[in-house]
Write a structure and sequence with these properties.
single chain; mainly alpha
C-alpha cells in the first residue's frame, strides 16, 4: 500500500515514466495524429490503474542524482518494451510502404501535407493491424504485461546490460521479412505487369507505355491487394498471437 510521502510520490512518477515511454513508442497509442497531452493523460490513467492493482513498495530515494538514475532506467525499460511491440506494427507498415511504391501510389503523400511522410497504404496497413490487434485482445494483453512487469522488473531495478542485443536484432529481421512476405503477392503482380509493359513497348513502340502503365499498375496492384486481404488477415492473426506470447515473456508475464 503506497502512502502519500515523498518516496511514494517519486515511485508513482517512476511508474508514469515507464508507462509513458512505452506508450510513446507503440504506434497504436503513440501515432503522430495523437496529441502529446492525450498520451500523457493515457499514461497517467494506466499508471494509476497499475498502482491500484499492483502491490508496489515505495522506492527509497536519498538524493536527486539517485532519482535521475532510476528515472533513466525506467525510461529505457519502457522504451525497449515499446520498441519490442512496435516491431509488430512495423512489419505491416513496411508491407504497406512496399505495396504503395510498387503500385505507383507513393506519390499520394504529396496531396496530404498535414500528415507525416508516409504513404496512404502504409497508414491503412497500420490501421488494419491495429484493428486486428484490438480484436485479439491486444490491449488487455499489453495492460497485463505492464502489470506483470512491475513484479518481474521492480521499479528502479532494471539493468540495461542484462539484455541480449541479438534478440532485438532477430526481431528486426523477422519484422522486415514478414512485411516483405505480406507484400509479396503485389510485388509479383507489379513485376509481371512491368514485364508485360516492357514487351509491349518493345514490339509496339507507338504506344505511350508511361501513360498506360501507371493507371494499369495502380489497378492491378489494388486488385491483387484486395483479393489477398483475407489471406493477409489470417497471416497477421497467427503472427500477432505468437508475437504477443513473446512480448509477455519479455515483460515477465508469460
Amino acid at each position: 500500500m503506497i502512502l502519500f510521502d515523498t518516496n511514494s510520490l517519486l515511485t508513482v512518477l517512476l511508474l508514469f515514466m515507464r508507462v509513458f515511454s512505452f506508450i510513446v513508442m507503440v504506434p497504436l497509442f503513440g501515432t503522430f495524429f495523437l496529441p502529446n497531452f492525450v498520451r500523457a493523460y493515457l499514461a497517467f490513467a494506466v499508471s494509476l490503474s497499475i498502482l491500484t492493482y499492483a502491490d508496489l513498495k515505495p522506492v527509497e530515494v536519498d538524493s536527486f542524482i539517485t532519482f535521475v538514475g532510476l528515472a533513466l532506467h525506467e525510461v529505457i525499460f519502457g522504451f525497449l518494451s515499446g520498441f519490442f511491440l512496435r516491431l509488430l506494427f512495423d512489419a505491416v507498415f513496411v508491407a504497406g510502404e512496399i505495396i504503395a511504391v510498387n503500385t505507383g501510389l507513393g506519390f499520394l503523400m504529396m496531396f496530404l501535407p498535414q500528415q507525416p511522410q508516409t504513404t496512404v497504404l502504409a497508414g491503412f496497413s497500420t490501421l488494419l493491424a491495429s484493428t486486428l490487434f484490438l480484436s485479439l485482445g491486444g490491449a488487455e494483453a499489453v495492460y497485463l504485461g505492464l502489470l506483470k512487469s512491475v513484479e518481474s522488473v521492480p521499479l528502479g531495478s532494471f539493468d540495461v546490460y542484462s539484455l541480449n542485443g541479438k534478440v532485438f536484432l532477430e526481431l528486426f529481421y523477422k519484422s522486415f521479412s514478414t512485411g516483405v512476405k505480406i507484400a509479396l503477392p503485389v510485388l509479383i503482380a507489379a513485376l509481371l505487369t512491368n514485364v508485360i509493359l516492357a514487351v509491349i513497348n518493345r514490339f509496339i513502340p507507338q504506344i505511350n507505355v508511361f501513360m498506360v502503365g501507371l493507371p494499369l499498375q495502380v489497378m492491378v496492384g489494388l486488385t491483387v491487394f484486395m483479393l489477398s486481404l483475407p489471406v493477409i488477415g489470417i497471416v497477421l492473426v497467427s503472427y500477432m498471437r505468437s508475437y504477443m506470447m513473446d512480448f509477455l515473456k519479455f515483460l515477465g508475464g508469460g
